[in-house]
């Protein structure tokens, strides 16, 4: 039942695409971070009218010119109807009909009687309608992530609101009676390191999760698991769970999926670490399907499941393309993991286009993850030597969050 890693990412993305639902309209002030559900069109020509790029004079005919008025940004310009006349013009103002040149104030002089003389620059100092875009032109396609520049572009075009893909509400259920939620580990107990970090990864992948939607530890009984999943499905479109993906004495995830009438989209992936990850479709209380992503309990494995299943699912759901690993040169050998894909934590040097594997990369460890920028991808049945080009899957971090630094090794 195990599926190859690249096929798993594709299948998770397809699962997102096939569950995409009706778009919503949000005001521009709330659009940052969303995804366009319809193309951004030029609602008018841009500029919408001939626009002066300078402070100076709009002139008609041969000089010297007699000033007959003034046009400021925001005003409409009267036509300049007589030769040898001009109007004073401000940057951003509409160029009057009839004007045949603009002269910068610093390129002009005025005589005692107030007549203006001067030379226009060889390249006209005004912008013509349609220079940036023509009315109806598609400026950005469906699936474009809305960032500050996109918000600005939409405002320039005249949009007050944009149609975006609906928010995906996520919930997190942390399983494991051995987990402490405060204080230092010891006496057989470990700190829950997934409850605090998974919501933050989910947000960076485009899901919405409120603090009360992260619940745990959920008691290690089947009933408690079923109840917690059922409760989470009331409000969440995507339920992530951590732990319990194997078939140990207190691993209740698979029986809970069965009890809730779920069906697997993906049940284990041929990747190391992280292979017991899963994606299942469950009927929600309103009859609409919910997605459940089962992240393995080992903390690094859980993050690998996030980038393998959850990030592609959310990309598909939002109509975004599947993030494709770029190729970099590994500075050190990376072992293959036989028939499984090996995801090896590495620190990127973007200037050199290299990545260096980091140390402390056991699946139970987070130290390597906290010092890496992403994963080198070693294909099944291959070994990588220093100098080989390998795909590199970046962690879903925001720009500038983790400046790539020279890799530290151990
Ligand atoms: N007989 C086998 N046992 C295991 C195998 C195997 O192939 N055969 N694979 C191992 C691998 S690989 C993984 S990954 C884990 C996955 O197990 P589960 O998803 O069922 O996770 P748990 O058993 O609940 O926990 C595993 C491990 O992770 C720690 N953990 C769990 N949750 C958290 C958390 N929120 N924060 C910090 N640490 C957490 C937990 O204490 C365990 O040490 O199965 C292996 N076993
Ligand atoms: O695959 Mo486990 O997910 O190596 O730790």
TrEMBL record:
It is an enzyme of class 2 (transferase). Its EC number is 2.10.1.1. SUPFAM superfamilies: MoeA C-terminal domain-like (SSF63867), MoeA N-terminal region -like (SSF63882), Molybdenum cofactor biosynthesis proteins (SSF53218). Residues 171-316 form the MoaB/Mog domain. Pathway: Cofactor biosynthesis; molybdopterin biosynthesis. It comes from the Bacteria. InterPro entries: MoaB/Mog-like_dom_sf, MoaB/Mog_dom, MoeA-like, MoeA_C_domain_IV, MoeA_C_domain_IV_sf, MoeA_linker/N, MoeA_linker/N_sf. One of its GO terms (biological process) is Mo-molybdopterin cofactor biosynthetic process. GO terms for cellular component: cytosol. CDD domains: MoeA. Keywords: Magnesium, Metal-binding, Molybdenum, Molybdenum cofactor biosynthesis, Transferase. Its cofactor is Mg(2+). It catalyses: adenylyl-molybdopterin + molybdate = Mo-molybdopterin + AMP + H(+). GO terms for molecular function: metal ion binding; molybdopterin molybdotransferase activity. Belongs to the MoeA family. Catalyzes the insertion of molybdate into adenylated molybdopterin with the concomitant release of AMP. This is Molybdopterin molybdenumtransferase. The lineage of its organism: Bacteria, Bacillati, Actinomycetota, Actinomycetes, Micromonosporales.
